[in-house]
Amino acid sequence: MDKVKGSLEALNAMQLTAGMEGLDAESKTLLHSKEVLAVILQGTVEEYEGYSRKEIMEFIEADSITGAKEVSAGRTNAQIQGDSAEFVQLGEKTSNFDVAFRARNPRLSGVGVVVNLHIDVEPQKTYRPGYPIEKRGIYYLARSLSSQLSLATDTVDYGRLEKCYSIWICRDDIPKKERYSISFYGMCNTKNIGGCASERGNYDLLNLVVVKLGGKTYEGGEGDEGYSLLRFLNAVMYPHREDFMETISEYIDFSVNEELWREAENMSGLGQSVLEEGIEQGIEKGIEQRNEELIMKKHSKGLSPESIADLLELSIEKVRETILKKTGE
């Protein structure tokens, strides 16, 4: 699988998220990690088709990742680039992008020329908040596009507008037939009269992606379209599952980050606790698996649960629980 090297920041966020219900402020921190964003972008952004997650991570401008950008008129334009006061007088309601950032558009960038994609990722607890998610997504896209223009001068260069993506990940309240699906919306040329035509890049500026989950178990097959992304998001959005870190590690490899493990020797506080906890859990899991193997080996030879417990120095409850789990007896 196309794994990327995990950072300490991402590992900390993973461990924090594992203890949350999902979509808490701490849980959303996970989506600020380039490793996590790379997995999401690989499955949703057409410009990154054919690129590895490692390459996509390099496209992301780490310094641009924020959750503090306001969507509402006036404030959005002032904060995203700091040079526009458009619509301030309207006094619209304030709301923030959850995770907004810029990433390089490889199709349009070249030597000495960098063209970006403007992306926001919006994790949502419910697909039915009382209004259509799709309409809110379109509004966010419009805001993201308009915020790129500076009204500080008399010149407005619409030719400099760059493509925007709004990616919505909805967890609960999904209609049954729509669970674990991904919808893509974009602008297209619907009709021409006469010999007219326009380059796609001149109007293909707003792309909305709505991912619908809908349950703690994703039952898709590996060959299904969207399988990799949906399986990953299932783990991220339902972090209480026992296999949370196990699933995440299939996409993000923390073991290959030698610098991270060396740093642990001098670490204090949460970072050290996270790593020590991970090591301890790994040891405990190994011991647990070994004990279960020994119990079943003795059981297969006809020994009673009491004899096995005495022989292996385990509790009789543990022996009976293992036999029941493995055989149903």
Structure at a glance:
The chain is an alpha/beta fold and 329 residues long. Helix content is 38%, strand content 13%.
Essential attributes:
329 residues; alpha/beta; two-stranded parallel ribbon; 12 helices; 38% helix
Explain how this protein is built.
- The protein is an alpha/beta fold and 329 residues long.
- It is built from twelve helices and seven strands.
- The protein has helices spanning 8-18, 25-28, 34-42, 53-59, 75-80, 133-146, 227-237, 244-248, 258-264, 270-300, 305-312, 316-327; strands at 4-5, 99-104, 116-126, 164-172, 181-186, 206-212, 252-253.
- The strands form two sheets. A five-stranded mixed beta sheet has the order 2-3-4-6-5, sandwiched between helices. The chain has a two-stranded parallel sheet with strand order 1-7.
- Strand 3 (116-126), helix 6 and strand 4 (164-172) form a beta-alpha-beta unit.
- Helix 10 (270-300) crosses helix 11 (305-312).
- The longest helix has 31 residues, at 270-300.
- The radius of gyration is 25 Å and the shape is elongated.
Biggest β-sheet, characterized? Answer: 5 strands, mixed
How many angstroms does the end-to-end distance come to? 38 Å
Number of strands: 7
The topology string of helices and strands comes to EHHHHHEEHEEEHHEHHHH
What structural class do the secondary elements suggest? alpha/beta
Q: Taking all residues together, what is the mean pLDDT?
A: 78
Binned strand content? 5-15%
Give the helix proportion (percent range).
Answer: 25-40%
Rounded to the nearest angstrom, the radius of gyration is 25 Å
Based on Cα principal axes, name the global outline: elongated
Number of helices: 12
